[in-house]
Amino acid sequence: MIVYFRLLKESFVFAINALMNNKLRTLLSLLGVTIGILSIIAVLAAVDSLDKKIAKDLSSLDKNTIYLMRFSFGPSDVPKWKREQFPDVNYDEYTYLESTLKDTEKVAYQLFVKNESIKFDSKLVSDVNVIPVTNELVAIEGLELASGRFYNAAESNSGTAVIVLGNEIAEGLFGNSYAIGKNVRLYGQRLTVIGVLKKQGESLFGDSNDTSVYLPVNFIRKRYGDNNEAMTPVIILKPQKGIDMDAYKAMVSQKIRNLRGLKAGEMDTFFINVLSGFTDFIDGIIGQMNVVGWIISGFSLLVGGFGIANIMFVSVKERTNLIGIQKSLGAKNRFILFQFLFEAVILSLIGGIIGLFLVWIIAIILTNVMDFEFVLSMSNIVLGTSLAALIGLISGILPAISASKLDPVEAIRTGM
To answer: Which of 162, 297, 310, 412 has the fewest CB atoms found within 10 Å of its own CB?
Structure first.
């Protein structure tokens, strides 16, 4: 065992000498490994960070949450011209489902509307994501409040002029002042602030809660009616846990079909969008990104492998005389083999470590510049190091075998 530790030490010294004595050649040889490891680990780290961000953004939502509306979240077999003829879901359908649907925790009715400006005294915040919705949304999305409260069922049903502000909106209007009880203006109307949400951070899916405001949907319906083309309604359903989702979707579909008077054989004029289907779609895209990243990075690793093999063949050539002397003094073939294999692995690991270091630097820069946490996980560090070692092992095997099979007399003579 001591012999192999000494061998490893000597191989490390030879590898460092190769770096020091042939800086340009070694740099060019290691560049492929460095770029390859940089590319693969950067892609994997980006995908992992994206996964964590998606999980964080959707953590408050049940993946079985259903969005019932005239649009589909993903690709659809229904022709576009037919989809454009579908009617919007309406408030009566929401109340019908709320009162008759079994195995359901919560049902909410929301309007998608364009962004607006909100005002308090002389302060104005523009491009605010306005969310008119019934009070059940606070339970469906798990909204957390920093101060105050969310509006209740009575306020929601009557369309009371109350509003809940996202964290950034509250800061923009009131700074460090207490917002609860203050009046703001939206749609030319006065609304009383009754709650401020906890800070969420930037979201990957549309506007963050921080830049959103919530108000009773009936406040909007009383002023603009239900047939406003600028507003798109959606019914949000949160089923009870552990139910058969296929049976539940069939039950929702049948109730809406009956309410709309659709006959057997007629196609649905609505879409039942399950959040899990959307997340599966996102996971598929992320998986494809992983594959593409591996393919592109694989070419860099291939070039890096050739570079390591090249430098090892040159190293064998330069040390032919030394190999002959080692063999004449009793060094066995496997000793020579392991010596050059270790050297190839060490050289490749150096390139891999440089690549990982560059990913780490990039991660720090992106995290500070963007409102997005770019994470280099320990699993990716281990993977990068293992890949570098594997590339060194594969690239060094042929040079190491050729070195181990040299005849000592011929090697000494060639070296002279």
So the answer is: 310
CB contact at 8 A, 237 and 64: no
What residues contact residue 41 under an 8 Å CB cut-off, 6+ apart? 355, 356, 359, 376, 380, 381, 383, 384
Q: What are the strands, taking DSSP E only, across 157-312?
A: 162-165, 183-186, 189-197, 212-216, 232-239, 271-274
DSSP string, 134-176: -TTHHHHTT--EEEE----HHHHHHT-SEEEE-HHHHHHHHTT
Q: Which residue has the tokens 């339970």?
A: 139
| CB-CB contact of 236 with 118 (8 Å) | no
Per residue in 158-174, pLDDT (tens digit) is 999 999 999 999 999 98
User: Minimal CA–CA distance to 353: which of 38, 45, 16?
Assistant: 38
Q: Are 222 and 111 in contact (CB under 8 A)?
A: no
Q: 199 Cβ partners below 8 Å, 6+ apart?
A: 146, 167, 168, 210
**Which amino acid type is present at position 337?**
L
Question: Domain check: are 240 and 375 in the same one?
Answer: no
Q: Classify residue 202 by its DSSP letter.
A: -
For all residues of the chain together, what is the average pLDDT? 81
SS3 (DSSP) at 104: strand
Cα–Cα distance between 342 and 326 in angstroms, integer? 17
Whether 290 and 259 map to the same domain: the answer is no
* Domain around 127: 87-269
Give every CB contact of residue 194 below 8 A, 6+ residues apart in sequence.
148, 149, 150, 151, 162, 163, 164, 180, 181
Residue type, 11: S
pLDDT tens across 240-292, in order? 888 888 899 999 999 999 999 888 888 989 998 887 655 666 666 667 777 77
Q: Output the DSSP codes for 226-248.
A: S--TT-EEEEEEEEPTT--HHHH
Contact predicate 359/378, CB 8 Å: no
Residue finishing a domain among 244, 269, 294: 269
Last residue of a domain, one of 269, 293, 324: 269
Which amino acid makes up residue 82?
Answer: K
Distance between alpha carbon 122 and the CA centroid of its chain, in Å? 39
